[in-house]
Amino acid sequence: MMLSSLGASGTLAALFFCASSVRATVTDYVIVGGGTGGLALANRLTENPRVSVLVLEAGGDGLGNVNISDLALVGASWGTDVDWQFPTETLPVPPGRNIGKVPRGKVLGGSSAINGAVYTRGDTRDFVQWAALGNPSWGPTDFFAASFKNEEFFPPPKNWSIDYIYSDHGHNGLLPTSFGNPAPPIQDAIINSVVAYGGRHSLDNEGGHPDGVAWATHARLPSNATRATSATGYYFPFSYRKNFQVKLFSQATRIIWKSTRGTPVAAGVEYVDQNGNTQVANATTVVLCGGVWGSPPILERSGVGNKTLLASLGIKSVVDLPGVGENMVEQTAAPMVYAFNTTLPLDSVTPLLLNGESLQETFTKGGDLAKLESLFVKPDNMAEPIFQAYQKLYQQGTTWVVGLTNLIQQPGQPTLLAWFGGVARPLSSGSCHITSSDGLAYPAVQYNWFTSEFDIYAASVTLQRIHNFTTVPPLSDWISARIAPPPNVTSLDDIGTYFIENCVQGDHPIGTAAMIPRQDGGVVDNNLKVYGTANVYVVDASVMPFQPTGYPHAHVYAIAERAAELFKAQKHY
Ligand SMILES: Cc1cc2nc3c(=O)[nH]c(=O)nc-3n(C[C@H](O)[C@H](O)[C@H](O)COP(=O)(O)OP(=O)(O)OC[C@H]3O[C@@H](n4cnc5c(N)ncnc54)[C@H](O)[C@@H]3O)c2cc1C
Ligand SMILES: *[C@@H]1O[C@H](CO)[C@@H](O)[C@H](O)[C@H]1NC(C)=O
Ligand SMILES: *[C@@H]1O[C@H](CO)[C@@H](O)[C@H](O)[C@H]1NC(C)=O
Ligand SMILES: *[C@@H]1O[C@H](CO)[C@@H](O)[C@H](O)[C@H]1NC(C)=O
Ligand SMILES: *[C@@H]1O[C@H](CO)[C@@H](O)[C@H](O)[C@H]1NC(C)=O
Ligand SMILES: *[C@@H]1O[C@H](CO)[C@@H](O)[C@H](O)[C@H]1NC(C)=O
Ligand SMILES: *[C@@H]1O[C@H](CO)[C@@H](O)[C@H](O)[C@H]1NC(C)=O
Ligand SMILES: *[C@@H]1O[C@H](CO)[C@@H](O)[C@H](O)[C@H]1NC(C)=O
Ligand SMILES: *[C@@H]1O[C@H](CO)[C@@H](O)[C@H](O)[C@H]1NC(C)=O
Asked: Which top-level group of life is the source organism from (predicted)?
């Protein structure tokens, strides 16, 4: 109801009701993107019935899509209509390599609806460094508390003999986690061979000490092995909330400014609705949750970004913030593939293990530590404080190496064991920038892999070490041949060449709206507010200053949980 419709019924009651309905016509938050971070944040904010949230999601609801719900079908959704299929730029190293289009979720749940669902938490020391980067609200105590709010851990049945530590998990969260069905005795053999070769067995990597080979949980309902997403956990069971509105097939293009004098104030967000019509959703606060390649383009089209770059595209600068779209770090991985002596009876859900080891440990036992250290050099485009944080973590011996084992079953063929190994925190960083002011155009995604030689050398030693794990009993007894790379690829140089030519993207990019100081190229502050704006925030994988040990998915949920706490404390709607 608008004020003008008050009419003549000027009783106190009418005024009272009118006042509350006027308030309700101005949405408190418009959230761009109903993905991993977006729906988790929207859920927590709408716990208060007086707070109204409108989520704009470019995709549909994904209901009934078995490619999403059935975790055994991971990958089937890639290239279908629930995947953005972002084109990528040609890589500098090796020259001319182009990996083509890469997946990102375009559906409620976002990438949590199409990802590998592996759920891993970083090292407490990662968050000591996040806090040291000028973010006092993001230290390990606060971060882990927020992360535990996300998780509802389902311990495995006793006879699965999977190790875990109950207190390393959250138990009252909205996202169920559980282990895939085990494939004994193969997985015991993997763990035992890692240990036999001098690696470490960690009982649980989720409690802040991910420093050995351990079982990894999935975002997964244990009862029927279906995938848990931010939509199944944070939206569908809560869609009855009147203050939690979602508009599907609505693609945001830019921020509409109420004023750009002084500190710019956003009025709302322009979007293209499902009929192709341009609309505006106004709100007191604008939160971008479009993901690592979704949020920076909206900022840039709205005049927030590198002024020179925007001028070249005819976009008027509103806030000169050259860090927008920079600092993009992606984990790469290359497979070491072995054939078993037999076809194993595997369950429908592929079991996985995560292997963590510190780089120093990897190198002390096989590589040239002095060479590694000499290659540990800050790339030109890396922010100085991030490099300092990397140095500290490196000196502390935190884990830099991640890997998954994957058991692959093909009809009539021996089962294959594929280890995907790589560097958790590579030094090379890339970018994501718009190339036109067109609101619906894809940005240019430049991964920029291997511009730091450190990354190549570290990856090579990692793969060689994985190979060495596989050559000792008990695992070696089960292996009949190495399939990839060919057996003559043994030296670190040859493994390095294999790695850069054959590695795949981890689909774990982060950092394009980094939470670091503005003068160092930061985009958001400790409260996730975009520097230089009055009421624009980013809450997704873009804000991570660097990749915590492990994979990003669980961290995005934790960021959203923590953002909700910070927003509630500030009441800025
Ligand atoms: C194939 C794949 C496998 C992965 N495997 C794992 C794994 O096993 N473990 C792990 O930890 N991590 C994994 N990840 C990474 C992890 O899923 C992501 O880091 C995380 O989900 C990102 O969350 P987000 O909120 O930043 O973005 P997203 O979850 O991608 O959400 C962004 C949302 O915004 C919407 N959107 C974007 N632009 C607009 C716009 N302009 N208007 C309206 N809506 C918009 C999108 O449609 C999407 O719904 C994987 C990712 C992929 C793609
Ligand atoms: C599921 O994936 C398969 C293989 O990619 C595809 O052919 C099919 O159309 C997908 N189903 C849906 C509902 O998108
Ligand atoms: C565990 O016990 C259940 C119930 O007895 C049985 O069905 C299942 O096969 C067992 N699993 C393993 C891994 O031993
Ligand atoms: C799996 O179990 C959940 C919770 O019990 C249920 O909501 C869902 O419909 C089930 N999915 C399938 C495919 O059986
Ligand atoms: C939304 O905000 C813009 C900019 O302040 C304003 O011009 C417009 O009238 C508003 N729309 C609605 C529906 O309130
Ligand atoms: C801003 O963009 C211009 C033009 O693309 C580029 O030359 C410059 O290096 C960028 N500045 C920063 C700080 O990234
Ligand atoms: C792997 O084993 C080979 C042969 O024993 C050895 O030379 C090499 O240093 C080992 N590499 C690693 C990383 O452990
Ligand atoms: C495969 O190797 C394991 C371990 O050595 C052995 O127990 C098993 O019998 C072998 N299977 C076949 C079919 O050779
Ligand atoms: C390995 O052998 C193949 C086939 O003979 C050959 O083409 C390739 O160059 C060799 N690679 C190395 C690193 O020796």
From this structure: Eukaryota
